[in-house]
Structure formats: C-alpha cells, structure tokens
Amino acid sequence: MIRLLWLIPVLPFASALILSLIGSRLSKRLAAVIGVGSIGLSAVVTILVAIGFLAAPPAGNSYTQLLWTWIDVAGFRPKIGLYLDSLSLVMLLVITFVAFLIHVYSAEFMIEDDGYARFFAYMNLFVASMLTLLLADNLLLLYLGWEGVGLCSYLLIGFWYRDPANGRAARKAFILTRVGDTALSIGLYLLFTHLGTLDIQSLMQRASAQWPAGSSYAVVAAFLLLGGAIGKSAQLPLQVWLPDAMAGPTPVSALLHAATMVTAGVYLIARTHVLFSLAPSAQLAVAVVGACTLLLAGFSALTQHDIKRILAYSTISQIGYMFLALGVGAWQAAMFHFVTHAFFKALLFLGAGVIINALDDEHSIFRMGGLRKELPITFWTFLIAGCSLAGLPFLTAGFFSKDLIIWDSWSAPQGHALLWAAAITGALLTSLYTFRMIFRVFFGPIGIPVTKRPGYRMTIPLVVLGILSVVGGYLMGPLLEFLHSALPSTIEAHTGALTEIRSEAIAGLIFLIGLYFSYLFYVQKRNWADALVAKPLGRSLHQWWFADWGFDWIYDKVFVQPFIWASEINKNDFVDAFYIGVGWLTQWLYKQLSSTETGRVRWYAAGMAAGSVLFLAMVLFK
Amino acid sequence: MFSLGLTGLLVRRNLIFVLMSLEVMLNAAGLAFVVAGARWHQADGQVMFLFILAMAAAEVCVGLALVLEIYHRFKSLDVDELSEMRG
Amino acid sequence: MEVAFYIAGAVAVVSTALMLTRLHIVHALLYLIVSLLGVAVVFYLLGASFVAALEIIVYAGAIMVLFVFVVMMLNLGAPAAELEKHWLTPGIWVGPLVLATILIIEVLYLVRGSTASLDAAGIVTPKQVGIALFGPYLIGVELASMLLLAGVVGAYHLGYRKVEKREVQHGADTHERRASAGGDLVLAGADRSARTP
User: Is C95 on the interface with B (CB under 8 A)?
Assistant: First the structure.
C-alpha cells in the first residue's frame, strides 16, 4: 500500500498535463471532473498510504521510494526520490484533503469563467508541485517543487490576466519570492559544497557530525534557508506580496495563500531542523522574525477594509506564530498549528468567497452587513472559523494549537518572556480584527442585498472544514505523539512564574477582551472607531498600519526607483554600441560592395581582365 | 592580338565594336591553338580551331540578333545604357 | 619564309589596332576583315592550310558578312560617328592599355623559354585533320553541330518576335498592349476584352 506513494504527486501532474493540452476542448463538466477527481484520487491514495504506514510502520519510521537518478555528474547524484515519514504524512493528509475540498468549491465558484479548464490545470499543477516539495527526499527536488509552486502562484494570481493590476500583483509576488529563492539556492550550494550531498537525511547526519554547534557554516546555511522560507511564507521583510496576491480568485487565496504554499517555508525549516539546532543564532532569528511579523500583520489587519486583505494579513500573522514556534524549538507545536490553521483559514477564505460572490463582487466590509440571516450556513461556519482563529477556549482547534505555541514561547529551551508577550499581544490583535470582521459583515443592518446564494458544492466544503476546525483540536495528543518520530519533542525548560494552565487562562481572557472590545466598537457604538481614527495620532497610525507599515513605500524608494533610474540612464549603453556598430559595419561594407555592381559590361570585363592578370602574375612569379 | 582585342572591348562603347573585339579575341586564341598544333606536328590544334570557329559562328548569330533586339528597345547601342542590373 | 610571316603578322596587328580606333563602323569592319586575312596567311605559312582556308571562308566570309548586314540594317550614319568621337576621349585608353600591357608582358614571360623557328613547323595536312575529327574528336563534332543548331534556333526566335512587333507598331492603344503581352495570345485576348468598350 505504501508503494502507491508515487501516485500522490503524479495524479495531479497527469491531470494538469491533460487539462493544459486538451482542456479547452473539453466541456466544463468534464474538465471539473478531471481536475477535482485527480485531487480526490490523490487524497484517497494518501489515506491508503497512511493506513499502510500506520498499520505497519517501516523501519526507522520512514519510507523512501526511489524513482530514478536525476543527475549523475562528478559525484553529484540527486535522485527523484520520495521520502515519507510522519511529518510529510501529516502534511500530505492535510494538504490533499483541503485541496480536494477547495477544488470542489471552485468547481462551482469558477463556473462562469472562460478559463475554467486553465484554472484547474494550474491548480492541479500547483498541488502536484506542492506534493513534490513535501515528498522530496533531497533538497534539489524540494527546490523543484518550490519553484513549481512559485510559478503556479504567479499563474494563478494573475489568472484574470486581462486586468493589468492582476499582472502586477502576480509579478510582485514572483519577484519577492524569487529573492527568497535566490537565498535558498545559495544555501543549497553552500550545503552541497561543504557536506557533499543534498539528500536531506544524510545531509542532517553529516551536518551534525561535521559541524559543531554554532559553527559559521551552519549559521550561514541556516540563515540562507531562512531567507528562502521568509520569501515563500511572506514573513518580514518580504511579506508585502501576500496582501496584493488577493487579486487572484478566492479559491486560489484559500489554497495557496492560506493553507499550502505559504506553509512551505515552515515545512522547510521543520525538515532541516537539525541544521537550525546547530545554529542557535539562526533559530533565534526565526523566532524574532515570527514574533515581529505576527505583531506587524496584526496591526495592519486591524485597519483593512477589504475582507480578503484582512484574511491575508491574518495569514501572515498566523504563519508568524508558526515561525515563532519553530524558532523556540517547538517543532511539533508549529506543525499542529499548521494543521489547524489550514482548516480554519481555508474555511475563512472560502466563506469570504461566498460572501463576495453573493454580494456581486463586493470586497469592503464597511459596505456589507447583516448577512447573518441571509447566508446562515456561511455565517455559522465563518463564525466557527473565526473563533478558531481567535482561540475560543476548549471548543475550537485553534485554541489548542495557538495556546501550545504561546506556552512554548515561554517555556521552551529558547523561549523568552518577550516572545511570550509578543504572542499574547498578537492573540489580542487576532481576536480584535477577527471579530471586527465578523461583526461588521454579519451583524447590523443589511448593507448590500444578496443576489446569489451558494450551491451545495460550495457549502459542503464549508461545513466539512467547519467540523474539522472544531474537532481538530482533540487530535492534539495523538498528533504530537505521531510527529515525535520525525521531530524532536519540546521539553519544558523553564517555567518560572507561569504555568501552562495560567498561560492558557490568560490567553482565554485575552480572547474575551478582544471579543468585548470588538463588540463595543463595531456593534454598539459604531462611531467610537471613527472618532478614534479622526484624531491626528489615530489617523496617522491608521494610515501607517493600513499601508503595511510603509514597507511598500520603502521598497519602492530603495529598490524600484533606483533601478528604473539606472536602466533609463543605461538605455544606450556601450554594450549596445558594440552590437549597433557591428550592424553599421555590415551596412557600410554592403554599400561599398554594391557600388561595384554598376551593371556596365565594360566594368565587368575590366574586372575579369584584372583578375586574370593578377592570377597569372601569382602563378608566374610565385 | 588578344590584348588588343581586350583593349578594344574595354574602351569602345558601341555594342557592335564590343562584339568585334570579341571576335578578335577569339581569333587570337585560335591562332595560339594552331601554332601549338603546328609546333608539335599534330592535328589537334587545327581541330580546336575548328571548334572555336563553330562556336564563334553560333555566338555571332545569337549576339547579332540580340543587338537588333536591343536597338529596337533602347534606341541606342551604347553599352553603358544597358545597366539596369546595377545595385 | 620568315619575312612573309612577320609581314603578315604585322599587317594583322596593325589593322586590328586601326580597327579599334575608327569612328565609322563600316571602316572598322573592313579593317577587321583585313586583319582576318592576315591571320589566314599566317596560318598558311605555319602549314595549316586547311585552317587558313576555313578562316577565310567562315570567319571572314560568313561571320564578317553577318556583321556587315546587321550594321547596314541598323542604319547608323553620321550621328553615330559623332557619338563615337564624343566617347573616345584620350583619357579613356589609359586603364585598358595598362591592363593589356601587363598581360602581354606576362604572356611573353611565359613563352620566353621556348624557341622554335618557323621551319621546324611541319605541314599538317587536311587529311590528318579529317582523321582526327572522325576519330578522337567525334563527340566534339556532334556537340559543335548541336551548338550551331541552338544558335540558329535562338536567332530565329529572337528575330521572329521582333518582326511581329514592328508590324503592329502603328496600331491603337489596345494593339500595343497586346504586343507587350509578349506574344502570349491568351493573355492578350483577355486584356483586349477588358479594355474594349
């Protein structure tokens, strides 16, 4: 059963190939069947593989399936191999299942679009690349999947390519992740040069054997890998592409930019955790990046009015939590939060898609209102997801995972009180903006009337994900136990003034505070929020946070403008002059030569005579 | 003789003169052949001259017909007028 | 014997030179005929009597006569002579003379090695030539005859069209267009039907 592992990425690949070659000639129904069916089959195979893995765990709790040797040059032999252990199995299960639900949803969401088959081709290619990334047993294959998801992200963000703004957003995403990818590839070169292999398991063994803790090679390599993860997961300072990536269709935002692609960075760090353990400064950097990002994104989310942008900043913030967990050494907590986050964030995005569709493409929450009665299923599932995101105690999965991270940021060996404080503040912000969104959209008088109601293909995934958002929390024990075989468990290094119960209590309290304040500002006294913003301090803060703490402006001034200026100056550079000169020389020669073609017989005869004279002379007087 | 014919070809602009200079050149070549044949006491030189003669005859035929054609078209026999293939 | 050779040779060269510099075309033709006769004498003196006869009959007799006919047909009179005078500037002789001189020098250099007097040349009889023609050079003979045939057909074809054009010269517009169709009667017919009201 485990041997079916290779089918998992291959099925979506095949489907993407079919759809891209003949998709435009298929009926929409058939294209949807192929597109959704391949992911469904992949999910089924994943379940079978999981059953096989769990029933008869292979030796060392990992299973490697070598398909073929990719390159064989001068001792560099990466293979196409699939590596299955508990970490990749968990991610596989979550990703195939969530991807399947999102595909079912988008079968109805995108039904009116002309590029229906193209959409599914891109989505399937994306899922295939992501699965390749997850199952890769060497870093080069992982990089292949990494690039593949980057490409599909570009294709899908700019899916409605006729609007140039979408193209710009897609390019922005691609370029920024490219910065990260460059760092990652330099890291790969470094690792290969010094350790002689890119196979992940042997890499980790050699690293821990050859490099002492804190060695500069390990630190540099870890920082470079972190750079790649930052780019792909939209953390500080490369987070500016994710809010703009909301220009793509909502299922894309749900799949790529909530559940899957942005967690690739988290997966990378978790996979190479040995390397990060050898480089404490890099690990600290991971934690600091995570903490800063979650705060920054939380403040920005508080000021947005586009519902998808709120969710985008929320995603950035939650992945900051995952980075924070990785940074303090709470590997399993990070993966647990990934699992729950995939459920509730995808649900939030799908719900937002339903709302946007129902209100005829309206994105601003300030124009919505009172949808509680109009879209009941959406309301209840959205509410569940929102509570999960904010961390409603005991009832939601998000509570368990987020609180585990908050507790570990205090108690783990690399934990620190400041990190705990950041995490708690982040929880407050999360609660605030989540309920701001919910109260604004679903409560109060009706803003825009509902024109379209979702069909069963859109509501059933919502319901399923809603159930998972609640139930997922109770998986914590077995899940952490299961992940133990791949990731080291976190020991409680220091407790001090705080115990786990107290930390959870504080977190629960924060949730309620946030809920109360949101209620106050957005249901009861709606003018208080406006009054706050009207004051000069409030207004400048609001604008600053709205513009993502000015990062776009900084990048524009520091990178974009100088680059444009330099390329303007260099428009007619000397290298060009060389090529133009070649062309000019050719033309000049041509003119000279063509002037010998006078068309006059006597001229030609003279030419022949002169030529024969020369020839004779050469023969005679040599 | 050959050089004289060549000079005439290069200097004169009248088409007929050009053709006549050509004849002179052919004649000179044939003379060379015959002399060579006589030197070695073989008939080959004369045979070659015969062939050259036949060729000259055919060439004159076609050439003069073309001259008439050209005169009719361009209304002049200036060789330099016939330079439409310049580039 | 040698004297006769030198005299005949001088006559040929001088008359060729004179031919080149004449203004009137018929004068030049006549000088050319004289040159050819001189060459024929040289041939005879070399012992190639067959070729000498051939030169006179074919070259001077047929080819030159052809030239004369064409010149007469073209009717180039005094204006042509004027034009020639206009063209033949002294400066124009320089380049070609230089080339020709270099050529002569080269050829002389080539032949300076071999010395053979006229007496050493034996007579090659027509009989020998005939045997050579029917023997090793048979194919050449056939090819030469085909060449002549081609020349005849070509000249006929070129001349034929010219005659037709001249006949309809004084026609109306449509006739001229018909002629310019190049003898293609189908196209001409279509053209005429398009134009005639």
Answer: yes
